[in-house]
TrEMBL record, chains A, B:
PROSITE patterns: FAD_PCMH (PS51387). Residues 42-221 form the FAD-binding PCMH-type domain. GO terms for molecular function: FAD binding; oxidoreductase activity. InterPro entries: FAD-bd_oxidored_4_C, FAD-bd_PCMH, FAD-bd_PCMH-like_sf, FAD-bd_PCMH_sub1, FAD-bd_PCMH_sub2, FAD-linked_Oxase-like_C, FAD-linked_OxidoTrans_Type4, Oxid_FAD_bind_N. Its cofactor is FAD. This is FAD-binding protein. Keywords: FAD, Flavoprotein, Oxidoreductase.
């Protein structure tokens, strides 16, 4: 909180001069609105919220905060799931929401240059109007911002065919904690010119610099897609079908897994029972193919439908039209919200090599049994990325805040044994950092801390996220 | 050279104990064989060549060299074009040639784990036998090593559809200059777990650590491909056709540009005049499409063939069969050798956003006229990656070693103005580092130097490559 002694308070006039008095907020309602993101039920009040309008303003703010050692938490839309935008040390929340312009859609080069505060879906629609395609689309695409997607190296359902955010970022304008403004690379598809600063910034969760311009490569938009929902009587079979599909040479544009609970809960949540679920069904795969030739897509769908029969699936639902596709996708996209509305929960963002999914799922359930928690699992099975939602339900507060962590550790240790890691697309942020030593030893962590120290010697920028300072 | 005082000489016994006496070389013939790579006519003798057999041996060697501040130059096959493997400071050449095993082809997860000393084409063929595809294939794939490809973030003709090396590297085992051995990530397709050390190592040209194991993702191998060679009466038209093809929604699996000289010289070099070149033809595009459905590929080829007519092309040569395809590809792959055999030359590896290619080419020719040099241009036009081969020809030694550099600077300044950069796939190494400040300012360079310092505080590993130490 701001006190007479607070170094933040002493800078309020300077902040007002830099960003304009109308964009410096200290009233409790605003502070409260910027105190949480979508991570569990966590809440930390900042001392001040700044809404700068240009990279130059951000540069001046960071220069002051570096000198005065004031913590700065950059924030996009606050839809993160690992606490990256939580101002857990107080100080400044620096909102990028006013940097919300798409600066250039370059149809000649299939590139877009955008500011970070653009809603991801707005960006997708804008390039779509030119026949172009920006594939990464987190479930929150209607509310998250592209800058946050860069910070977390987001994925989403299309990643299985098209890759994640990092695969589309060509070049970034970044304000460093020193106030220097740099570009990380060039607007080119191939680059062997010095160290890859671009990829170092992608996924660095706002700890190394503040991204103020983003150059993304685009693709021609595929002209058609087809979608089917396949029920399974065994979740392990569903997971096993996933890697069989790829081994058979198919590359679906989405391959999503949902446990029965996930689908039932979300249908209740959105009040839509489009999908009849037989009693013996325990999981579904949502499978999409896309491309420019409908005959090829039909053949692919038939081939995949034949293949999944070998895994004891039930009756396949083929989406008839655009509306049914949209409804099925809405169900998948809103599972997270449905789970959240149902109970306090923790979401783990496990990722393993795709063929290890059956082992991961069986292991999660066994660990749940041991520690007495229920889990609802769903996610991007085609990438081996399984969201494990641990439901508080009847669990005592003591177990929830105590022994449960041991259970999570066991899940992550299993993930590591299977060749995977503890976050596929949500980041480490605040809530996963205690688990980071499960996958990185002191040598690796020392390199990461050294990089942090190099970019941010005074430790102002999202300090204490990903890992604690030494 | 080794002298009684040389710190290298004092360690020979230790090196022999670590890697075995049979793998420590100080005889002049061996030193000479490791004194050059494929970069111009440069030649630097190392003091000793070591051929370790395991990461642990490399670890022990690096520990000693760090303590004793002995320069270490890691080396794959020595096919590099920017001098990355040249031991310009003497000291140790550390050859990775004995780490030449493919450790695991994981058909379940579409991944391969390999040591760095495997020839790229050997790796491609090994996964091909399982129906799998590792796309990046530099022209030197028959002789270069996969570890060198990682070091330089190599590309090759398939990059236009499939991306470059960095897009396939999931995880790396790296020996740090301290002797510590780490993995940089996990064997997963999505990863939001800490800073991306993997992508920091890719393209770092052996300056940060020595890669000893590589995990690559693979694709199902496409079943068919089609190839055509299109002659143009204007090089600018050829370049303009390139971006038109992408804007029309086609994604060829290769889209290569060759000036008339390039094609004529290579046909002479390999003694094969498969391609009749009309008098008015000044450039060619070699265009490949690949996929699993031959009907779709035929349609794509027809569409592209129709489109290129708008750019005043000549008679298109469609490759009839596998042999003709192989011959056309051989021509393209050996252009570099043909140019080299023809004259002393310098090769610049320019890259710009694809639609700026006509401007780049026109600019290169204008600058050549101004400085009196002839250039032969070819390369991966689909990526905007143009190899500019500057021919010594009748140029005086004085101009070659003097004013020519100003001409190169002008080319690179143009590249930068067009949104590009000075190396697309060859790296900076030794011969391009003087030009690096054209694209990076002191802030960016300080970050890169800081990263180098963090990984290699004693500055032993490929020191003086990419940039000079501060």
């Amino acid at each position: 909180m701001v006190t007479a002694e607070s170094p933040v308070l002493r800078q309020l006039d300077a902040f007002r001069r830099i960003v304009g008095a109308g964009f410096v907020f200290v009233d409790p309602e605003v502070l409260d609105a910027y105190a949480s993101d979508e991570t569990e039920d966590l809440h930390y009040l900042p001392d001040v919220v700044l809404k700068p309008g240009t990279p130059e303003e951000i540069s001046q703010v960071l220069r002051i905060c570096s000198e005065q050692r004031i913590p700065v938490t950059p924030r996009g839309a606050g839809t993160g799931l690992s606490g990256g935008a939580l101002p857990h040390l107080g100080g400044v929340v620096l909102s990028l929401e006013r940097l919300n312009r798409i600066l250039d859609i370059d149809e000649r080069n299939l590139q877009v240059t955008t500011e970070p505060g653009v809603i991801t879906e707005v960006l997708q629609n804008a390039v779509r109007e030119k026949g172009l395609f920006y594939p990464p689309d987190p479930s929150s695409r209607g509310s998250c911002m592209i800058g946050g997607n860069i910070a977390e190296n987001s994925g989403g359902p299309k990643a299985v065919k098209y890759g994640v955010v990092k695969d589309y970022v060509l070049n970034l304008e970044v304000v460093l904690p020193s106030g220097d403004i740099i570009w990380t690379g060039a607007n080119v598809l191939k680059n062997a010119t010095g160290y890859n600063l671009t990829q170092l910034i992608v996924g660095s969760e706002g700890t190394l610099g503040i991204v103020t311009k983003i150059v993304l490569r685009l693709l021609p938009h595929p002209q058609h897609d087809l979608l089917m929902l396949v029920p399974f009587r065994s979740a392990e079979n569903a997971c096993a079908a996933v890697s069989a599909i790829f081994r058979a040479g198919y590359t679906p544009s989405a391959l999503e897994f949902m446990e029965r609970d996930a689908l039932e809960w979300v249908m209740r949540f959105v009040d839509n029972s489009i999908v009849p679920i037989q009693d013996d069904v325990v999981a579904h795969l949502l499978i999409e193919v896309d491309g420019n030739d409908m005959d090829v897509l039909m053949k692919d769908m038939e081939g995949i439908a034949t293949l999944v029969q070998e895994f004891d699936c039930g009756d396949i639902l083929f989406a008839d039209d655009a509306q049914q596709k949209a409804e099925l996708w809405k169900l998948r996209r809103r599972v997270g919200e449905a789970v959240k509305s149902n109970s306090i929960y923790k979401e783990e963002d496990t990722v393993v090599p795709r063929a290890e999914l059956p082992q991961l799922l069986a292991g999660v359930k066994a660990i749940g049994k041991k520690y007495g928690f229920h889990s609802v699992c769903y996610g991007h099975a085609g990438d081996g990325n399984l969201h494990v939602n641990i439901i508080k339900g009847d669990l005592s507060d003591e177990a929830w805040n105590g022994s449960l962590k041991e259970g999570i550790r066991e899940i992550f240790a299993l993930v590591k044994r299977l060749g995977g890691t503890i976050s596929g697309e949500h980041g480490i942020g605040l809530v996963q950092k205690e688990y980071l030593p499960i996958v990185f030893n002191e040598v690796q962590l020392a390199l990461m801390r050294g990089i942090k120290q190099l970019f941010d010697p005074n430790g102002i920028l999202n300090a204490g996220k990903i890992f604690d300072p030494k």
